[in-house]
Amino acid sequence: MTQIKICGITNIEDALCAASCGSDALGFIFYPPSPRYIAPEQARLIIKKLPLNIVSIGVFVNEDTKEVKKIAELCDLDFIQLQGDESVEYCQDFSSKIIIKAVELCDENDLQNAVRYNAAAILTDSRHAGLYGGTGKKSNWDLALQLKSKKPLILAGGLNENNVCEALEKVVPHALDINSGVEIKPGKKDHEKLARIFDVIRRAAAGHKEMELIFTKRGR
Q1: Sign of the C-alpha dihedral, residues 103, 134, 36, 122?
Q2: 14 is catalytic
Q3: pLDDT, position 138
Q4: Is residue 210 part of a domain?
Q5: Contact indicator for 210, 9 with CB cutoff of 8 Å
Q6: Residue 164: which CATH number?
Q7: Is residue 211 part of a domain?
Q8: pLDDT band at residue 136, thresholds of 50, 70 and 90?
């Protein structure tokens, strides 16, 4: 089945619910302006209580590389997701095996720029009103499909139980990143929506061929 990441986790109840529903990865946002921000120490406590198979991902926006590495070490993160305007050169300060680079695809130039990143995967999202993600807006699926032939693809941007089947049929991404589509409010997940969207994805992805796994535990 297509792998699934639930992003914007701020509390242990939501984390364990997502894990029990079948999430492969959980995302913790370390960007203070975000309504889904979580303090690193709080995220660390949640991550320590997760099942061992759950991949932990820290989301950063235009953060100093030293601070990113400090938080990654503190929280024992498996992946670092760079959600801002980080350059190709910035990303080279990290192992490509643990980097997920988020991009917004608006045109062919964006597509070409995305391919330049040496990362474990490229995440396509939608930006709006100065927000770097979690906008509830659909990303460009046509360009995402083109990117998938060149890089491991994580599809994000306004995914919910009403459109995720179409996304899987049209794009067939390696993984899905779901956030606002399963929330009661920013930072608080709706556990019934979580259960429903996992059921929808399982049915929609049945019969899909196996693809390369993106979310894997980092070697300790």
Answers
A1: negative
A2: no
A3: 84
A4: no
A5: no
A6: 3.20.20.70
A7: no
A8: low
